[in-house]
């Protein structure tokens, strides 16, 4: 079996590629990643020489390059994780998000259809559902109500994917996950930002009152769920993937400070970001019931292991935060 993973040099994508190579010995992986700021070849340095792994630097919106690749190397499935996903950047400019998340998804769907790809998995986010009140959970039938350019682009991609199923009977599945955490996460995100700032003795900027709630899921639990959905999910369906693990941002800051032996005074309130949704929470009963998936990494252990990873891999995140990794890739690959 040969699988194309798009966005495989990013946080979740790199974990998925590594998980497949480690747990599915008969599967080959083609990683399609254009190497934007959040893509990092260091994320998969440990598998780059694996004979079952190839990376092709191609944008998902480049129809000619994608179709040429599929002509040369047919695949059985496409797992689309390529996305501009940093909400704050989408507020500054939504154009790259539309190009990658919307146009890129449509290009991939058409390429998959014309090449007879057996299954297409669209990896999405709970942010497409918008904001919850203090009670209730997002189910797969909750209406889409995105509140940021990023989440609007992902909702659009979901609709395009589901339309391909209904119009062409293309074998597609959509997954929507809650907030992921773990090693190799880009240090703009909440947990790695706090951990790395703490290691640098820098303050932790906390948006607003810090009471925004998210459901947290370890990335290894997520990628295991993605493979189960790819193998056993029903065509045309949506599967929510959540950890049943809600915490406010302030609670996370306190937990990390406790783990790192830092005073709570390191937490500094800053102005809230635009369109900041108050609460997300996932009902993952469908994937549990139909596929037998459930999270295995406990919050306490996962958080402890994550802090330890960033402490032990200081060079990785220091190169990102300083920007030196971008200069290196500009020189080697011509990255903008």
What tags apply to this protein structure?
336 residues; Rossmann fold; seven-stranded parallel β-sheet; three-stranded mixed β-sheet
Task: Kindly describe this structure.
With 336 residues, the chain is an alpha/beta fold. The chain has one domain (2-187, 209-244, 278-296): Rossmann fold. It contains twelve helices and twelve strands. It has helices at residues 11-23, 63-72, 87-92, 95-114, 149-168, 190-199, 219-232, 249-260, 285-291, 299-312, 314-322, 324-333; strands at residues 2-6, 28-32, 53-56, 77-80, 119-125, 172-177, 179-181, 204-207, 213-218, 238-241, 246-248, 267-270. The protein is globular and about 55 Å long.
Number of helices: 12
- Average per-residue pLDDT, rounded, comes to 93
**Unreliable stretches, pLDDT < 50, 5 or more residues?**
none
CATH class: Alpha Beta
Number of strands: 12
Query: What's the assembly state of these chains?
Result: single chain
> For the record, what is the CATH homologous superfamily label?
NAD(P)-binding Rossmann-like Domain
CATH fold node name: Rossmann fold
Report the major sheet.
Answer: 7 strands, parallel
